[in-house]
Amino acid sequence: MAPTAEPSSRPPQWRPRTGPPPGLKNLGNTCYLNSVLQCLASTPPLATFCLASRHSNQCKKVFPNRDNDCALCVLERQIARLLRADAGALDSPAKVIRCMPLFAEHFRWGRQEDAHEFLRYVVDACHTADLRMRKGLRAAAASGNCGEDVRGQGVCLVMRETFGGALLSQVKCLECKGESNKTDEIMDISLDLPGSSSVADALSRFFHPETLDGANKYCCERYAVLYLKRNKWFLDEGSMYCKNFHCLLAKDAKAVLRCFRVDNNIFSGNKIM
């Protein structure tokens, strides 16, 4: 997947390759890292962003001599170099490995790690770098310490624009039909692969409505459900059975419960004394 030749006035654009993509050297249990880099380099919006050096061009102006301390600068150069390499060439992720603490400080070179976990750390670290850049750009513009070319540029939060989204969770009461909505910003969704025939099928299963009952039951703000266990004896058979009852209380209702002990001596005929 290589960039195509573009006029000098236009930034390079990502285009699918016709031949085999460049490879990455395994420098000792780095297959998890290589697979993540290949996936990111094959993501069109991020690939185009990296080919244009959009972050590093701003970063070195706002934070001079700190490009080796920026996770997104390191990733941007690695992806751009990988995309510009000849078909079938072999590149090295040595720079990313040396800067591993910028992405995941507890990861160690030579140790097997999880690819999905590393991807999440990379996305988070690069998004943090984007936010730091935006904050630094605003501070530099306010103090007049940057040129017009930098002051007039905005910061593209590329990780959020590429991977970010919003997940709406809705809980609906089947009694009062009231709805409770909650929106969370997300960068990924964990899907159950067993039993799913495709990604679309896994997504459909993820968003399928479910009834919350048992230990997962919610308490509605408008209705309080009170469960009572009532015992009833039949004197002629000397047996007992239990029934469960429930009643709906208004939101501002108060219930007073009293506990007392009973035994068979309180019965007289078919009445309770």
Automatic annotation (TrEMBL):
From start to end residue, where is composition biased (Pro residues)? 9-21
Q: Which keywords fit this entry according to its UniProt record? A: Hydrolase, Protease, Thiol protease, Ubl conjugation pathway
Q: Which GO terms describe its molecular function?
A: cysteine-type deubiquitinase activity
Segments for region (Disordered): 1-21
Spell out the family assignment given in the record's similarity comment: Belongs to the peptidase C19 family.
Q: Which residues form the USP domain?
A: 22-273
| Protein's GO biological process | protein deubiquitination; proteolysis
PROSITE patterns assigned to the protein according to its UniProt record, in alphabetical order: USP_1, USP_3
Task: Write out the catalysed reaction.
Answer: Thiol-dependent hydrolysis of ester, thioester, amide, peptide and isopeptide bonds formed by the C-terminal Gly of ubiquitin (a 76-residue protein attached to proteins as an intracellular targeting signal)
* Enzyme superclass (EC): hydrolase
Which Pfam family, any one, appears in the UniProt record? UCH
Q: Which PANTHER family match?
A: UBIQUITIN CARBOXYL-TERMINAL HYDROLASE (PTHR24006), UBIQUITIN CARBOXYL-TERMINAL HYDROLASE 36 (PTHR24006:SF758)
Q: What is its EC number?
A: 3.4.19.12
- Name the UniProt record assigns to this protein: ubiquitinyl hydrolase 1
Q: Which organism is it from?
A: Zea mays (Maize)
Origin, by domain of life?
Eukaryota
